Amino acid sequence: MRLNLRFDREHCIPVDFPAHSATDRSEWARATAADFVARTGLAPEATGPIAAALDDVARVASDDSRSLVIVGIDGRVIAPLTVFAVDGALSEADQAAFLWSPSAQLPATTEVIETDHFGIGISTTLLERHGDRDFGFERWLFFGEDATVAAILGPVAPYGLAFVEEAAKAVLRQSTLEGFVASSDRVRVDALDRAVVRFGEEWPA
Questions:
Q1: What are phi and psi of 196, to 5 degrees?
Q2: How far apart (Å, rounded) are the C-alpha atoms in residues 80 and 83?
Q3: Cα(18)–Cα(20) distance, rounded to whole angstroms?
Q4: What is the pLDDT of residue 26?
Q5: What does the alpha-carbon distance between residue 165 and residue 125 come to, in Å, rounded to a whole number?
Q6: 3-class DSSP state for residue 79?
Q7: pLDDT at residue 1, rounded to an integer
Q8: Each residue of 37-56: pLDDT tens digit?
Q9: How far apart are CA 141 and CA 150, in angstroms?
């Protein structure tokens, strides 16, 4: 299965560099960030943080996913978006494990999203603590007849999620997976939505 991500090049940078060494990866990240900053008219000081984000994402890239770095509000908010394709359906336990995190600091908020190719999916937005820092994440699941598409936006500073979320949603609404047939059964999405809401209602005050 081949993921084809469609994105706005004014806000998104694809991470598709097959780094053979840390030096190669770092050089690619710096050059790519400099090109993006020059093309979009951002301030030169945005180059360093964007290059660091590109380097970090490229370091953990795999053949099972496609990644972008999304840049918002003049380079002051930078977040990775990673999209995965999985053969078959995830178990209910795997769905819950993906959409939830034991590091969550507050109940998740959910949204049902409709896309051109992936069909109807569900997202959860979480505030998570890792070490002594808080980060915002948004996670999506889309169900097909023979495959599942998953995506993660983050980590990003909690206040910054709102400035990159719409660009991420636009990518998911327009992207494709070869051979993917979206499920016409909305029952699973609605059941997950109710389960997350119910969990939030039971969150200790």
A1: -65, -40
A2: 10
A3: 6
A4: 93
A5: 10
A6: strand
A7: 66
A8: 999 999 999 999 999 999 99
A9: 5
**Number of neighbouring beta carbons within 10 Å of residue 193:** 17
The encoded tokens of residue 47 equal 């180059």
Tokens for 118, please give them. 């992936």
Could you tell me which of 64, 180, 79 has the C-alpha nearest to residue 121? Answer: 180
Tell me how far apart the alpha carbons of residues 81 and 15 are, in angstroms, rounded to a whole number. 10
- Please report how many Cα atoms fall inside a 13 Å half-sphere around the Cα of residue 36, on the Cβ side: 31
Of 153, 152, 155, the closest CA to residue 135 belongs to: 155
The DSSP code sequence of 107-169 is: --EEEEEE-SSS-EEEEEEEEEEETTEEEEEEEEEEEBSSEEEEEEEEEE-GGGHHHHHHHHH
* End-to-end Cα spacing for the chain: 44
Question: Do 140 and 90 touch, CB atoms closer than 8 A?
Answer: no
CB of 77 within 8 A of CB of 157?
yes
| Separation in Å, CA 27 to CA 31, 39, 51, 133 | 6, 18, 9, 29
Positions of the chain with pLDDT lower than 50, given as ranges: none
pLDDT at 45: 95
73, amino acid identity: I
pTM over 0.85: yes
